[in-house]
Amino acid sequence: MKRTTAPTDTPPEAAxxxxxxxxxxxxxxxxxxSFNLRKATRVVTQLYDDILQPTGLxxxxxxxLVALAAEGEMSVSYMARQLLMSPSTLxxxxxxxxxxxxxxxxxxxxxxxxxxxxAAGERALHQAMPYWQKAQDKFLGQVGAAAWTELxxxxxxxxxxxxxxxx
Length: 167
What we know:
mainly alpha, Arc Repressor Mutant, subunit A, 3 strands
């Protein structure tokens, strides 16, 4: 998501120029939360996408279909809030699913849209589930079920802590 306003926090004043060295830059790469979470996400997403490839769906699309199946129908703005996405990013991500006839959207209010799975979307989701399960099993086999449960709980805490700090 692009930052549309300047940050309100002012950077800490440095008494002198910060040290720069390959060791410093390496340490930043090793410890940066944003970089390392994104790196892990890319690897895990690729694992799921590779296994889901025969379905024609990407893991991000399967998650959207699952979210719609769980709720039945959602406004784009509500869905974006639930998935912690911007409405414009979510709309762009939903577009290929709409073009494929897997979801349907209708006007809701003055500017909103309600989104729901179509019958074709339900079939595609059901057909994708064995592939998703295979990806999930492979992921758990590589990471360990207990380790994933612990990490998933910690990630939920990180999301809660950082989400509230933005408010």
